[in-house]
Amino acid sequence: MRADLAHRWTLAELAQDAHLSRSRLGGLFVEQFGVPPIMLLARLRVREMARLLRESDMTVDQIGVRVGWRNRGHAAEQFAKTMGVTPTAYRAEYRQRTRQAADDLTGCLWCGQPLPTTDDDRKTRRSDGDPLIHG
């Protein structure tokens, strides 16, 4: 399932691939993962959606299709049920936190000392951690 989230998996197909009955496969999944196979698939899809929302500029529709949900409403509903926020809100919150974290970096990344300001715009210089910046 992890290798092809976009595939329209069915319990019958998974059981056939594993050479087990559907009930036996379902029982093994619950024993091993705590949830039935299709619920695990939904969680894997949500996890991949979250990653793509963080790391790409793809639309929610595009991401939904990529993880196996052709209906945007269903994808958003499943995401919100698991994550507690809509996909759009998740992306916005992640980007806001990322911007805030970048804005909070006013010291040298290597030693933490305050960075000297530039003469022209008086903005604090940023460092990638070069220990020679204070030399």
Shape: elongated
Computed CA radius of gyration, to the nearest angstrom: 23 Å
- The DSSP helix count reads 6
Distance between the termini: 54 Å
Which percent range describes the beta-strand content?
under 5%
H/E topology pattern:
HHHHHH
Assembly level? single chain
Average pLDDT works out at 83
- What can be said about the biggest beta sheet? none
What structural class should be given to the helix and strand makeup? mainly alpha
Low-confidence stretches: 121-131
Q: How would you characterize this protein structure?
A:
- The chain has 135 residues and is mainly alpha-helical.
- The protein is 56% helix and 0% strand.
- The protein has helices spanning 11-18, 22-33, 37-55, 60-67, 72-83, 87-103.
- α1 (11-18) packs across α2 (22-33).
- The model is unreliable at 121-131 (pLDDT under 50).
Helix and strand layout, with pairings?
Blueprint lengths: L10 H8 L3 H12 L3 H19 L4 H8 L4 H12 L3 H17 L32
Helix pairs in contact: 1-2, 3-4, 3-5, 3-6
Task: For the structure shown, list the relevant keywords.
mainly alpha; elongated; 6 helices; 135 residues; single chain
Summed up:
This protein has helices at 11-18, 22-33, 37-55, 60-67, 72-83, 87-103. The protein is mainly α and 135 residues long.
